[in-house]
Amino acid sequence: QLGLDMEELEEIEEDAGLGNGGLGRLAACFLDSMATLGLAAYGYGIRYEYGIFNQKIRDGWQVEEADDWLRHGNPWEKARPEYMLPVHFYGRVEHGATGAKWVDTQVVLALPYDTPVPGYMNNTVNTMRLWSARAPNDFNLRDFNVGDYIQAVLDRNLAENISRVLYPNDNFFEGKELRLKQEYFVVAATLQDIIRRFKASKFGSTDSVRTVFDSFPDQVAIQLNDTHPAMAIPELMRIFVDIEKLPWNTAWDITKRTFAYTNHTVLPEALERWPVDLVEKLLPRHLQIIYEINQRHLDHIASLFPNDMDRLRRMSLIEEGGTKRINMAHLCIVGSHAVNGVAKIHSEIVKTQVFEDFAALEPEKFQNKTNGITPRRWLLLCNPGLAELIAEKIGEDYVRDLSQLTKLHEFVDDDLFIREVAKVKQENKVKFALYLEKEYKVKINPSSMFDVHVKRIHEYKRQLMNCLHIITMYNRIRRDPAKLFVPRTVIIGGKAAPGYHMAKMIIKLINAVAHVVNNDPVVGSKLKVIFLENYRVSLAEKVIPATDLSEQISTAGTEASGTGNMKFMLNGALTIGTMDGANVEMAEEAGEENLFIFGMRVEDVAELDREGYNAQKYYNELPELQQAVDQIESGFFSPKEPELFKDVVNMLFHHDRFKVFADYEAYVKCQEKVSELYLNSKAWTKMVIRNIAAAGKFSSDRTIKEYARDIWHVEPSDLKIPPPNEPRDAVEDKTPNGTAA
């Protein structure tokens, strides 16, 4: 009626980029699934004023700009000042007859903002509650420095900086005081909120004055999304012991039964290890509690393994040597009743390598919960053409029960269906090609294979290996321009952490290669390379439905799960990938012959580590690799600055932890098989259909049902929306016991 175009409006709205990569996006998918399954669940986090930076590419380099996503306001959130809560920092601990008291603290207020999370076509609307930091009104004024009123008011910023900006590191730990403040801030506010809600419920019964907390773990489950909220464990102990005056053993039993911990990475540089002196300054009481937890934990180990000092050292929550540090993963394992990895292979590595001592002690504590994605966003919303085509064949119920996609196996030989699937993909490609033309002023051939590698830029994800393949294809075209070449548009996108030098060099290299390839008349439209600027969720929704080939090429044993891999599979792309993360289970579901699997397995990588990885050997034995590396080194792609990429080449030869050269040959050969199949459009599309039909396992609905059953012990409820002509019953009576918080 207003003459506005919905699509145009959607383009204007800013992404809420409040996470870095897979971890934050997974939480968003989980919220959607929990609401759709009718679970009484809350998502808690920080309302960052500035989210993940906007990425600009200037002269081939990444440049960061602040993400001022709240500039025009956020219509989906509602501030709830009535639920504002105090959070304490610094101060000191007094020990008296009544126990420990944390005194002389600095107070910051946590102001909650609520965003509704509606389930898909049901009666559930859950809440995501994000905390914003506010200075109390007497901040810096109650002290003796009344003299400078103006400065005191300006200093309110110091407190409010806590929720100012998201740390932009993915899979990397940066031990900064502000980051620890953020982690404790979200934890302290959230636990107060949960306990307030528990006390207000009929379960928080009071004997005289004291609340009885016996039923707390039956009513509340708290899932720790990586170790970032690990301070919740000592914080809940502090509340129970210091404030609610519970005996230590009672408090510890309740705490353990409440928490469960999900591990998201095995990279050592990503594991959180906070310096003891920093924690002592910021949270002195919590350090004491962590020491007490550790003492009791080590006493227990010592009773089981007398005189095994090395085991005690390995399993301690405190790492000695140099600066003393707290190993937050160890704290999470000891303080939780369940620990899980996020794909079968990852959970196996967690159990047998990273935390083997803990798994030997309590094998029943360790589980797997393979990640998933919400089909509402990642099929219905982003690919309506494909969603509709599927619904025509198998009905609409698959949206809530993605396992029904197996019914598509019946149509794998249906010529009409094959043509329609190919047509939807072609339409998506044309639409995306138009978008690229508009945004990047590059003309691309929509009938070329769209070969897409989008994720955070990291050495372990091996964008460099893709780059070497691009150079190899380029050299082959130039060597024999008349030879048949299957045209490709290679699209690489992703953000590098601002302080990650090598990742930024990789972006520059890709752009330098793109400049040479895209401007070589011999190549023409056979090969185009595009670096996709500012990759984010809204851009993923455009590129994924248009993709033919999904690149999932991390070194085996480094990508915990991956979720982009699942999005591509569901949207009719084929996967080229290593046996890593959820790729393994994708191959298991679809049949390994329906993915392009290549390269070393976890065992091969371990074997290569034992004998010592020698990059030079591969360089000497593989002429095409040698040519590509020489071109990078000699400045073929950076003629004005021949030395530009010497750091990259030096890394590849002398300290490449992720063994790019070792998988190069297998990767290039596998890519030849991809090109060969792409020539046969019908055979390609049949493989696509087999992949879509096998994608059902990778719904986050399935993942959440497993968490609910195996960890939280809550039952999904499927209350349908009653028709408008029927009166609505009081739904409160039908909600299951138990709250997943």
TrEMBL record:
- Biased composition (Basic and acidic residues) is annotated at 726-735
A GO cellular component annotated for this chain's UniProt record is: cytoplasm
Q: Under which main EC class is this enzyme filed?
A: transferase
Q: Which reaction does it catalyse?
A: [(1->4)-alpha-D-glucosyl](n) + phosphate = [(1->4)-alpha-D-glucosyl](n-1) + alpha-D-glucose 1-phosphate
Q: Name one Pfam family in it.
A: Phosphorylase
Enzyme Commission code: 2.4.1.1
Output the PROSITE patterns linked to this UniProt entry.
Answer: PHOSPHORYLASE (PS00102)
Q: Which cofactors are named for this entry?
A: pyridoxal 5'-phosphate
Sorted keywords for this record are: Allosteric enzyme, Carbohydrate metabolism, Glycogen metabolism, Glycosyltransferase, Phosphoprotein, Pyridoxal phosphate, Transferase
**What Gene3D superfamilies does the record tag this protein with?**
Glycogen Phosphorylase B
Where in this protein does the record put region Disordered? 716-741
Tell me how this protein assembles.
Homodimer; enzymatically active. Interacts with PPP1R3B; recruits the phosphatase PP1 which dephosphorylates and inactivates PYGL/glycogen phosphorylase.
- Tell me which family the UniProt entry assigns to this protein: Belongs to the glycogen phosphorylase family.
Task of the protein:
Allosteric enzyme that catalyzes the rate-limiting step in glycogen catabolism, the phosphorolytic cleavage of glycogen to produce glucose-1-phosphate, and plays a central role in maintaining cellular and organismal glucose homeostasis.
Name of this chain's protein: Alpha-1,4 glucan phosphorylase
Q: Which species is this record about? A: Smutsornis africanus (Double-banded courser)
